[in-house]
Amino acid sequence: MPCASGCCPQGSLLNLDWHKTREGQEVLASVLQRNLTKLKRFGLLERPMVPLHISISEVRYKVFLLGKSGVGKTSTLAKLSGCLIPTVHSETQGIQTTTVFWPGKILQQNKAFMFQIQFWDTGENSTKKYDHIMPACLDKADAIIFLFSFIDKSSFEDIPHQLTRISTPKDNTTKLVMGTKFDQFAHSEITQRDIRDFEHNWKIPILKTRNIPDAENQNSFNDIAQNLNIICEHLWQRDLNIGGKGPPGDNKISYC
């Protein structure tokens, strides 16, 4: 049921703790490295080896990461996909695509799904230099994640401009916002009030991630799991909305 603010509570479509259950952990093991705190990298033709006694369907999505140079798009993608987080900033040349597998259980259907998410990343300079880069990234994208850095307020203030520039009246692409470098809270230029005001005005939740190199621990994995669950839930809601089964208008999944 919608809450008083007219939005659907987080976790109303996807069981956000399913990966912690016995069944969820069996499936999760198929996408994790041996240390169980980082995701595996899969080749083009590879798929997770899910236990045969567990029924699971696969759904595929394209997600574009967009943000100013230096906000942490590449390091965020590295963290989400199980790669080493770079310690030195290097502008992404051209287009980089990375596929991530993440399991989730849809509450209404009581059924497990393997979300195959192809993340697209490109450098800001590449989009300015080559006219075909931005259209290629936006083409058939299911979601766009707008990134800003908590230690760079100008990158946060640029998000509304990017949202306005990218959105069109017939656009049904899911929009999310993610703040990077949340671990550097002592140097944060973004206040909690800034976050609340943005979520209230734009009806878009702000995800947070810590861009700490080689942080292979449970806290780091919990950060990854939380963000992937939220991304998957919004992608699922997009499909429901397109099919006419989702909540109408501004009844979007959000923080209530």
Can you describe what's shown?
With 256 residues, the chain is an alpha/beta fold. It has helices at residues 22-28, 73-81, 124-129, 133-138, 153-157, 159-166, 192-202, 218-242; strands at 8-9, 56-67, 95-106, 111-122, 143-149, 174-180, 206-208, 253-254. The longest helix has 25 residues, at 218-242. The radius of gyration is 18 Å and the shape is globular. The model is unreliable at 1-6 and 247-256 (pLDDT under 50).
Give the helices and strands, then pairings:
Blueprint: E1 8-9, H1 22-28, E2 56-67, H2 73-81, E3 95-106, E4 111-122, H3 124-129, H4 133-138, E5 143-149, H5 153-157, H6 159-166, E6 174-180, H7 192-202, E7 206-208, H8 218-242, E8 253-254
Parallel strand pairs: 1-8, 2-4, 2-5, 5-6, 6-7
Antiparallel strand pairs: 3-4
Q: Based on Cα principal axes, name the global outline.
A: globular
Helix content: 25-40%
Query: In order across it, which strands form the biggest sheet?
Result: 3-4-2-5-6-7
Whole-angstrom Rg: 18 Å
Give the uncertain stretches in residue-range form.
1-6, 247-256
Q: Please write the string of helix (H) and strand (E) elements.
A: EHEHEEHHEHHEHEHE
Mean of the pLDDT scores?
85
User: What is the structural class?
Assistant: alpha/beta
Main sheet specs: 6 strands, mixed
Please give the alpha-carbon distance between the first and last residues.
12 Å
Total strands: the figure is: 8
Total of DSSP H or I helical runs spanning 4+ residues: 8
| Proportion of beta-strand residues | 15-25%
Brief overview:
By secondary structure, this protein is an alpha/beta fold.
Keyword list:
256 residues; alpha/beta; two-stranded parallel ribbon; 8 helices; 8 strands; disordered C terminus
